Amino acid sequence: MFNFPVTSLRKTIFFRSVFTYLLVFIPIIMLGFYLYNWSYNNASDDISRATGTQLNYYLEDLDREIEWMELQQFDLVEDSELSKLAVTWGLMNSVERRQSLNYVLHRLTSFKNSSAYIKDINVHIYSISKTVSATNSVVDLDEQAYTQLTANVSTNRNRLYYSGEALHLIAVKYGGGKGELPNYVVQIELDGAKLKQSLQQLSVYPDSGSFLISEPSEFTLMSSDEASDVVNSYLHEEKSGKSSMSTLEVSGEQYHMDKAYSNNLMLTLVTYLPEKTVKRPLSFFYKWAWLFAVASFIAIVVFSYSTYLFIHKPLLLLVQSFRRMEAGELDHPIVHDKKDEFGFLYTRFNQMLKKLTSLIDQDYKQKMMMQKSELKQLQSQINPHFLYNSFFILNSLAKVGDVERIEQFTIMLGEYFRFITRNGEDLVLLEEEIKHSRMYTDIQELRFSRRIRVRFDELPDQMKAIRIPRLIVQPIIENAYEHSLEKKSEQGLLCITFEKHQDTIHIIVEDNGDHLSDEQLFMLQNRLQHNSEENEITGIINIHRRLVLTYGDGSGLRLERSELNGLKVIICIQMNNDMLLE
User: Which of 307, 337, 360 is where one domain is finished?
Assistant: First the structure.
């Protein structure tokens, strides 16, 4: 339905009208969504600030609790009665042993009852192969577990140690034992159930939850089993331990995540809250915002269609008619029955077409005929010059009485003029032009075979079908003979090569003449760049102007000093579809 000029859509009245309408309504729609997002962000920030404070307070309280446990644990490790029990067990009688064990057991029980977060306290005494527990009293020491525990303690420098699905506080006492193992190990097992209850108190919103992560020990404690999917997704995303707010997608649902990190405990405490819970108070506003956006979109569509129908379509018809006129189609007036402003413009346009048609013969066609006449004149100036030189060569051969070469020369000369008089086409195939030029060099070699050597490259196949003006290459070669190589006392060299660069072809003619000065080269270059009607139009300038007239700017001749020290003429031709045979 919509038909726009591809290159000028943004400059049309239709586009500007719709753009103006959008410029008015889009900011209003954006303001509505901005207010919604602003309200949501404020609610999220308020929740995050409150939750962050709560999380930090929880971690600080847990840190203080564990710090108190560590102080009691240190006091227990340094207890003299416990050290005596571990070192002098073999010297004690049964009564003394019982008394020492009861003392240690009483301390452990009192220690355990002092904190709700302690599940059990164990003292593993290697020297007596016993484990004293606040819960299980006195049991035999598990030496394999003891060895593994002490090995992990020596490599793990963290305050909290994860083992057996629980967190532990470990302290050891060295000296006087067997081998390198410590005398005893004091192990405090934290109560996961109590920690889980404390985490549940952080979940104040519906469907919210929290979990505790110890990244060094890969320990995770959740407030409820329903949080497992959230925890797994969180661990998969590898969230950093620094305090921040983020969002997390779990099974297609977005969650609002808040977290706090304790450097002392190396624990991360995370709470999650479904975004729908945060957005619930804003749902009414959200529905009206979308309703307004849809209504605005419908209004934009209606306005755009009416603008297209009543303004852009008639204007587009006028633009397309102007483009046909620019392409030279002056016989397509606009057929209409409009009585509005566009009807006036259509009528005036049709009148303009009639006026242009009557003027085209007086102006445009005359200029084209003058240009073609000038091109013919430039071509005709070259032919007499070559004819003069041909007779000069024939005269020279006749003087020396070389009948064989005269016969060969007349045959080649006949072929040469057959190329000129064969048809009246202005453009010929490059293959034919190069064949003609090669014929000319063969003619000259009859005369200068001893003094001048010619290196004529083969024309590439992809360049053979290119159309060029007649007599473009041969006059350049003739110029090299006449003004450079004939005057050279030593061995002369003439090189003709071909190059192709994307949409440009180069035909290069260069010689090793030694009579070209820098001033002469500069004068020739200047005449090519600033040729005018008053200048003499002969030789190289003829060819340059013919190329420019035929192919436009970018084509023509470039003059340089050859690496052979003589003149280097580069024939530049900008290729287009008209230069190739159909």
Answer: 360
Contact 300, 22 (CB under 8 A): yes
Asked if the structure places residue 163 within a domain, the reply is no
Find all residues with CB under 8 Å of 4, minimum gap 6, and list them.
12, 14, 316
**Which own/partner contact pairs does 105-114 have at CB distance under 8 Å and 24+ positions apart?**
105/132, 105/134, 105/137, 105/138, 107/76, 107/79, 108/76, 108/132, 108/133, 108/134, 109/134, 111/72, 111/76, 114/72
Query: Within a domain: residue 447?
Result: yes
Contacts of 276 (CB under 8 A, 6+ apart): 253, 254
Whether residues 341 and 372 share a domain: the answer is no
With a CB cutoff of 8 Å and minimum separation 6, the contacts of 154 are: none
Residue 295 shares a structural domain with residue 414? no
Structural domain including 529 reads 368-579
CA distances from 45 to 52, 256, 309, 552 (A): 10, 11, 50, 69
- My answer on whether 410 and 355 are in the same domain is no
Say whether both 375 and 394 belong to one domain: yes
CA atoms of 199 and 182, how far apart (whole Å): 36
Q: Walk across the sheet containing 130-133 and list its strands.
A: 137-140, 130-133, 118-125, 184-190, 166-173, 161-163
Helix (H, G, I), strand (E, B) or coil at 402: coil
Residue 355 and residue 458 in one domain: no
Residues 24, 21: Cα–Cα separation, whole Å = 5
- What is the C-alpha separation between 17 and 191, in angstroms, rounded? 71
Question: What does pLDDT average to in each consecutive run of 10 residues of the chain (582 residues)?
Answer: 51 70 76 72 75 85 88 88 85 88 90 88 87 88 80 71 79 68 85 85 79 77 80 72 67 83 85 77 67 79 77 79 80 81 83 80 55 53 62 79 80 78 72 90 79 91 87 86 83 92 91 86 84 55 80 86 91 72 46
Count of domains in the chain? 2
Largest CA distance in the chain: 151
The domain boundary, picked from 310, 343, 360, lies at: 360
